[in-house]
Design a protein that fits this description.
It comes from Vibrio ponticus. The protein is α/β, with parallel strands linked by helices.
């Protein structure tokens, strides 16, 4: 244990989550109430106790991990507690090489969990619990079916099952948190589902903090963290960003992430104002990997040098993006609305500062709101948006955002358009203008995804028109390998402005997810420039530059993080960050609300020359090598 603690201490680790029970269902402490579950090959029957003693003696915190919905021992011995699909199936096959057969916490399994957690408190001084795999899932077990019938829901209808599952999971968290706090009212609690989505807000009182699990080289990818973190940080709780040391995903034993990749992921977490967590897995022989912690130590040493410029920092933002997940239920626990990837990429690539928000956020704190592609608007949200615009707020709306939840008509005249129907042609073509697509050639640009046909209301202005193709491609009428060329004939409006609202008829953000046409990005950014002519940040860097503006009010300082690491598609499965490519002579311009006393690099403490021009702070960074504050 001394070697274990020494390696962690030298790697600048100040907190490590250790296992009470794993997905295989085995205990790593000497359980008295479930001795049959104690790991059969554990030489030290009290491994967890030894770990806690060794780590806490060095000032290292030890939250305790236990699994919830994945437990192979319980799966084998109590199959009646499984989540059951609508056809009577388990969530994984009996002979699959996996422990991912999900258990339902609406069964008597919950009583086992409560007893298990109670025993942990009886044996240890528990300061924090990480409860893993706590997700909403469609279940037709006999307990869930009975519960649905009591609530006059129909178990044979998926929508009713999901409605019940959402409420049941809220009730489970309430029940379990009350149970935990009966032992220690101050115990830190986190329920992990691999993603932070709007359903988390409904149970936020059960969390002490949030943890954004996002292994970019694993199933999450490099688009997940920058998107989900901008929502998680709006929920009023401290959060931890969690990546992994693995080359790919969890359980990738004896693999090592590239140092540049780990540095990037950790500094990205800092830039978003999160605490840092790196997932690892202990070898069954109990010997910790020195090579792993040499790598982790290099990253955490860099963190230590800049921590004081990160503590208590909050993001400064201009733009709020409404989160479609609030309106669309998904049962994939790590999934998220892909349209958000499109919005995030475009805004990050342009240096814009933004949050991803839900309808419970304070809209007034944002100068511009974006409703990307698929935000249906009910009467309550329509009133919120109208009040926001009436008070000077700006709005960008695309495609079917703004339509009522159950009908294809706009929620009001706020958007300056009347819905006619799906566009009669697809693909069709957008003709740039002097305001939208102003840097593009004044020729047709293909819009691959089908848009909608709308008519401008009185007083609205068409900024760009759609040009029709000769015909839609069918087996009877086709031209060349892909879509039909432009006919040159104007068909219907493509971009419309009414006051402080700009509407795009095409799903521009989903289109950027699919194949990132440069013209899509340019027309969106032109619309933003029209509505937000003085953004918080401008820079002369490439689109691969990530910039985040934060503020430490207590210290009266703005903190600008700059990151330049480029994930590359070097393999079929994984995005790779290998090389750090420096940037030189990077010009920065910020619109801040305070007088500036000095500009300096951190942690080097080198003062930079600066100017105030038209109320904007202007300065140049000679060299950016990976990450710079």
């Amino acid at each position: 244990m001394e070697e274990f603690a020494t390696v962690l201490e030298k790697a600048h680790v100040n907190s490590v989550t250790c296992f009470a029970r794993c997905h295989h269902g085995y205990n790593y402490y000497d359980s008295k109430i479930n001795p049959e579950r104690n790991h059969p090959n554990l030489e030290n029957r009290n491994l967890l106790a030894s770990q806690i003693e060794a780590l806490r003696s060095r000032g290292i915190r030890v939250p305790i991990y236990t699994t919830v919905q994945w437990d192979e021992y319980t799966s084998m011995h109590n199959p009646e507690w499984h989540v059951i699909g609508e056809k009577g199936e388990m969530t994984a096959g009996l002979y699959d090489a996996t422990f991912c057969r999900t258990l339902c916490v609406n069964t008597p399994y919950r009583d086992y969990l409560k007893n298990h957690i109670g025993e942990i408190f009886s044996q240890f001084e528990v300061t924090g619990l990480f409860l893993d795999i706590v997700k909403v899932i469609d279940c037709s077990c006999r307990w869930c079916r009975a519960g649905m019938k009591e609530q006059q829901l129909n178990p044979s209808i998926q929508a009713d099952r999901l409605k019940y599952a959402i409420e049941m999971m809220k009730e489970f968290k309430d029940d379990m948190s009350q149970h935990i706090r009966s032992f220690n009212p101050e115990c830190e609690i986190f329920y992990n589902q691999g993603h932070i989505s709007p359903d988390t807000r409904e149970s936020i009182h059960n969390y002490s903090h949030l943890e954004v699990e996002s292994l970019p080289t694993g199933m999450w990818g490099y688009n997940h963290f920058p998107t989900v973190v901008r929502y998680a940080r709006t929920l009023g709780h401290d959060f931890i960003g969690m990546t992994g040391k693995f080359a790919t995903d969890w359980g990738d034993m004896h693999s090592f992430k590239n140092q540049a990749a780990l540095d990037f992921e950790i500094m990205h977490i800092l830039a978003m104002n999160g605490k840092c967590s790196i997932g690892d897995q202990l070898h069954p022989n109990g010997k910790i990997s020195q090579a792993t912690y040499d790598m982790i130590g290099q990253s955490y040493e860099k963190v230590e040098k800049v921590e004081q410029w990160c503590r208590g920092a909050t993001a400064k933002t201009d733009i709020g993006v409404l989160n479609p997940e609030e309106f669309q239920l998904t049962i994939e626990f790590w999934d998220q609305a892909k349209v958000l990837h499109g919005v995030t990429r475009i805004l990050v690539e342009a240096g814009h500062q933004f949050d991803i928000i839900d309808t419970k956020a304070d809209f007034s704190q944002y100068k511009l709101l974006i409703l990307p592609d698929e935000i249906r608007v009910d009467a309550k949200l329509d009133t919120q948006l109208r009040n926001y615009v009436d008070n000077g707020g700006k709005l960008i709306v695309s495609h079917k955002s703004g339509l009522k939840p159950s009908t294809n008509e706009f929620s009001s005249d706020l958007y300056g358009v009347e819905f006619i129907g799906d566009a009669p042609f697809s693909p069709d073509y957008l003709m740039p203008s002097d305001s939208i697509g102003k840097s593009l050639s004044k020729t047709e640009h293909v819009m691959y995804k089908r848009g909608v046909e709308v008519a401008p209301l009185h007083g609205a202005t068409t900024l760009c028109n759609v040009i029709k193709p000769y015909f839609n491609r069918t087996w009877e009428h086709y031209c060349s390998h892909k879509h039909t060329p432009s006919s040159g004939e104007v068909g219907y409006p493509g971009v419309i402005q009414q006051g402080n609202v700009i509407y795009f008829a095409h799903p521009v953000f989903n289109q950027y997810v699919q194949n990132a046409p440069i013209w899509i990005k340019k027309i969106v950014l032109d619309a933003i420039d029209m509505l937000l002519p003085q953004p918080l940040l401008r820079h002369t860097g490439p689109s691969s530059l990530i910039a985040a503006v934060n503020e430490q009010t207590e210290h009266q300082r703005a903190v600008l993080h700059l990151l330049h690491y480029i994930p590359e598609r070097k393999s079929d499965e994984t995005m790779i960050v290998e090389d750090v490519i420096p940037l030189h002579e990077l010009s920065l311009s910020l619109k801040l609300d305070h007088a500036i006393a000095s500009v300096k690099t951190i942690p080097e403490n080198v003062h930079l020359d600066y100017q105030i021009i038209d109320d904007r702070l202007e300065f140049t960074l000679d060299k950016l090598n990976g990450h710079q504050i």
